[in-house]
Input
Amino acid sequence: MRRLDDRVKDFLAFARVKPLNLEKVNLNALVTDIAKNFSSRTNPRFRIELHLAEQKPWLLGDADQLHQAVVNLVINADQAMPNGGTLSMETETIEDSVVLRLTDEGSGISAVHRDRIFEPFFTTKKEGTGLGLAIVHQIATAHRGKITIRNREEGESGVMIELRLPAACILR
Ligand SMILES: Nc1ncnc2c1ncn2[C@@H]1O[C@H](COP(=O)(O)OP(=O)(O)O)[C@@H](O)[C@H]1O
Ligand SMILES: [Mg+2]
Output
């Protein structure tokens, strides 16, 4: 179960759309920081694996908000793998975008839920707020980015999430 203050944080973050406080953000540093500091509350066998782009993927963004978005995705992956498993986080620069790809080994998203997962308050969890992905979507959109979620290919369970944000070309 997530602690009450996490749930309250979700509500506040969703209700209060903050202006972007733009700065140079290195996506590699951001995900490395999260991988180091995230500890599963429920799941000692939850593992994060990093595959970082060799060239630093720079973007102009709000580091705190992006941090929050990625943490929300990591929490979901953790919760999707109650018996442990690996979440892979991969960064890449593709043309004018920086991309973060998260792949987990959970049970994936069923077809009946797929169209609703970004809806505020949509949850399939007993203790869920249904705000995690709504917040991620809000933050991605504010950065002129895009998020897509789909199940992994045949034979592999889990979801693949792609967060794509405009790269800061001048910083490369
Ligand atoms: N990595 C994932 N694997 C499987 N299902 C997921 C994953 N991430 C999100 N979901 C589904 O999307 C729903 C909405 O997620 P979210 O908005 O974070 O709310 P919450 O986590 O509070 O349920 C979840 O309840 C779950 O059904
Ligand atoms: Mg969530």
Remarks:
- The pocket of magnesium ion (ligand 2) is lined by residues 72, 75-76, 132 (CB under 6 Å).
- The chain is about 35% helix and 25% strand.
- The chain has a mean pLDDT of 92.
